[in-house]
């Protein structure tokens, strides 16, 4: 079942055209990774999906409903169901881990204090950071901060998660930790779009791969077909990445 469909979107910044007739569909329950060179508009694409950037033309359909022209108030509800995981974690420095995770619950739910505590504990267990409730972000490693940022993004139980370069700057162990969490979320039925330069990570965790090239989606294929592709654009991305 298609959960998200992008039809013929175009986006310019001044004279620079970033997307020019970009089409892509995402199936419920899959992780779809998006490759593209630096400056090709991968993050712009993710931001456009939840209205942080506005496309110039074309359609963005979430569960069959066009959302590209929604007002900020209307997007409020959409953003509960589509989570954006920022590259740097984007935590509030002056708040503890528990307070960071509680923030969206206070803003968007009517949970009691006990229910919030249970929800926070459950999230910290999911990301392998049990017992970190009282810690400040400054006392966490970069990898831990990213995991807490991920937990905060998904604490409202969205069905679609937008991962914007989540493994950037992480060592192999922290990358492994994050990929394991993404795999757990997929088993829980969550859909993901994984924007990354980390091709081995994408090949490990994804169901399908899309490649953004020349302002459009060049190809969308299963991981298996991407690995054995003879397409020169595909080979340029994965050469040396598949053992």
Characterization of the model:
The chain has helices at 42-49, 72-81, 97-108, 113-126, 142-154, 172-187, 199-205, 223-227, 232-238, and strands spanning 2-13, 16-27, 31-36, 57-62, 65-66, 82-85, 160-164, 191-195, 208-213, 216-222. The radius of gyration is 18 Å and the shape is globular. It contains 9 helices and 10 strands. α3 runs parallel beside α5. β7 (160-164), α6 and β8 (191-195) form a beta-alpha-beta unit. It has a domain at 2-90 and 158-238: Rossmann fold (3-Layer(aba) Sandwich), CATH 3.40.50.300. It is α/β, with parallel strands linked by helices and 243 residues long. The strands form 2 sheets. The chain has a 6-stranded mixed sheet, with helices on both faces. Strands 2-1-4-5 form a 4-stranded antiparallel sheet, covered by helices on one side.
User: At the fourth CATH level, what is the homologous superfamily of the domain at 2-90 and 158-238?
Assistant: P-loop containing nucleotide triphosphate hydrolases
CA distance, first residue to last residue: 32 Å
Q: Treating each run of at least 4 consecutive H or I residues as one helix, how many helices? A: 9
The CATH class assignment of the domain at 2-90 and 158-238 is Alpha Beta
Strands ordered across the widest β-sheet: 6-7-8-3-9-10
């Amino acid at each position: 079942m298609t959960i998200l469909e992008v039809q013929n979107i175009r986006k310019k910044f001044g004279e620079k055209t970033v997307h020019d007739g970009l089409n892509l569909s995402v199936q419920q329950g899959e992780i779809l990774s998006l490759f593209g060179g630096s400056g090709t508009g991968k993050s712009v694409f993710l931001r456009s999906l939840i209205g942080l950037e506005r496309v110039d033309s074309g359609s963005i359909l979430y569960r069959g409903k066009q959302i590209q022209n929604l007002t900020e108030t209307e997007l409020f509800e959409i953003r509960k169901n589509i989570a954006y995981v920022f590259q740097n974690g984007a935590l509030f420095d002056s708040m503890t881990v528990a307070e960071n995770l509680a923030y969206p619950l206070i803003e968007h739910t009517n949970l009691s204090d006990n229910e919030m505590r249970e929800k926070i504990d459950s999230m910290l267990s999911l990301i392998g950071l049990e017992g970190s409730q009282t810690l400040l972000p400054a006392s966490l490693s970069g990898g831990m901060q990213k995991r807490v940022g991920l937990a905060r993004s998904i604490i409202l139980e969205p069905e679609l998660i937008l991962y914007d370069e989540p493994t950037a700057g992480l060592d192999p162990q922290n990358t492994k930790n994050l990929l394991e969490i993404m795999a757990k979320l997929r088993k829980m039925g969550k859909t993901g779009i994984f924007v990354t330069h980390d091709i081995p990570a994408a090949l490990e965790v994804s169901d399908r791969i899309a490649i953004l090239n020349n302002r459009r989606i060049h190809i969308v294929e299963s991981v298996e077909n991407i690995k054995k592709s003879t397409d020169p654009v595909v080979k340029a991305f994965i050469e040396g990445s598949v053992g």
